[in-house]
Amino acid sequence: MPLSAPNLDDRRFQQFVDDAKRYIQRRCPEWTDHNVSDPGVTLIEAVAHMVDQLVYRLNRVPDKNHVAFLDLLGITLLPPAAARTDVTFWLSAPQEEDVVLPAGVEIATRRTEHEDAVVFATERDLRVVPCELAAVAVQPEGGTTADHTADVRGGQDFACFSAAPRPGDVLALGLSAAVPSCAVMIRLDSRVDGVGVDPRQPPLRWEAWTGEGWRECEVASDGTGGLNRSGEVVLHVPDGHVMSRLGAQEAGWLRCRVTEPLPGQPFYSVSPTIRQAEAATVGGTTGAVHAETIRDEALGEAAGVPGERFRTEHAPVAAGDPSLVLESSEGGGWREWAAVEHFAASGPADRHFRLDAATGEISFGPAVRTPDGGLRQYGAVPDKGAVLRARRYRTGGGRAGNVARGGLSVLRTSVPYVTQVENREAARGGVDAETLEEAKRRTPVALRAQDRAVTARDYEELARRAAPDTARIRCLPVDEAGTGAVRVLVVPQAVPDPGGRLRFEQLVPGDDLLRRVTRYLDDRRPIGIRLAVGPPFYQGVTVVATVHAFAAAEGEAVRRAALDALYAHLDPLTGGSDGRGWRFGRPLQAGEVFAVLQRVPGVELVDEVRLHAADPLTGKRGDASDRIDLDASALVFSYDHKVRVLGGAS
């Protein structure tokens, strides 16, 4: 059982005043006016206020000692982490010259009456490269490439794919320049010939050629209905797009490829045709971070002694890889130092330093006396007179940066030809700095683990240390078969879209996050233990319910409130009965859904509840049931709930 830190004095202001008045009654009975208007009582309250402040400072002594003990154990407060997202800058019109957006361009959320603006800054330069259509080709599946550039320039109709389209048929569009990280608008003059497809979900995939192969382009909008009518297609070209040769033409190639239809998805019966085509660059995308980047900050001049300490001007230092780049002047140039968690493995020549990110303190290795009377230097010491500088670090961060999709819409830095900015995905990764109370709870676990992963709790704690920007971590114990396999499930942070709905792709951890956790745990697992790090299985659930509303309640408002309640309860991050996220492996029963809906304001009676297991990728729904069981590695995911409201005001 953990020991609780005592209050050395638990009295407060009013208790001091009451004690003084009781003392007056015993020692000075002729003083009978104890109202607040009495000058003597006013003096008592003034003294009580000062004593209350002294008691507050006295009770901070245990916290101060606790911090000193944590520092002695080498445990420091974890720094905040900065949220990141990609932001797209839209041009007012296509330009003839490159539009360069330098690193540090600021974008922000809209400031409201109750909330300040959340400011992001771009991390690197963005070059929006102009382009035009240079070549057009058609490549049937298994056939040869046919050049149709002359047909497009002459306004002659040609088929985009085979006469009877097949998966793998390609329409290739060559741009005059490579446009990595740019948004490209393709204007097509098409006819309604590609009958059979659903224009809202055509079996097409747009791709761009990079040095490593074809990569998918995100489709911002498709006004052609699957190449079936005249309109514009706006594509976000991935980073890495390069010039390449297709047939005899070198260009920045994009292609529209026919894909295998999904179950129930209509397919082309006849190839669509194109008469004319144009292309232009209309925007660009780059990464942005919710932190201020500090560059080339002078820290001071080294004295050349062991254990020397310096501080950054701005604190806390946001987490990063690396968090801070430290350099020292040497021989007319700069030498870089590496950050380490401790100096135990540092030799006298190792250019290592420690960073306390919470305070911004930089410390160099100490010299420790050995039993024979000599000194052992742990880590190198900067030369006397050497100038130290922080070449780059970030300050800021926190959960406030986890803004929803579309939240960044204000351009705070004036950029020529740019009229609009947006984040197409929610920002995530923002974590507040660790508090002292949180560090107290973490310390016993960290001491038991000793930086080694043995138990399931060790794996979870170390994984959180490697990736504090995750929402949930779950380690499944070593299997009973004795194969020595450990599975760590990672659930990333996700910010709901406006309306409180999570999309399935938001719950899939990125490759960088999985690699970071895997690399950290791999160095700390026992030899012979196989490690698998990945996402949990998300069991899609569709609730179909019928409720009766009170006569005075508005039916549509009740329906929206009921849907909100279902999505909130079945949220894998913040749902469940305790609001801390759905428990791994916990089954879902119709009875609890009845209870959730019955608590919705305006609901008089819950008539019927049916549960359907659903595939969140294909949308396929299973048979109705009263209970959905989940595996130990599974979480629920709300998928397209349906609520029917009877009665109520129209």
UniProtKB/TrEMBL annotation:
Domain of life according to the entry: Bacteria
InterPro entries, alphabetized: CHP02243
Stated name of the protein: Putative baseplate assembly protein
Species assigned in the record: Actinomadura soli
UniProt lineage: Bacteria, Bacillati, Actinomycetota, Actinomycetes, Streptosporangiales
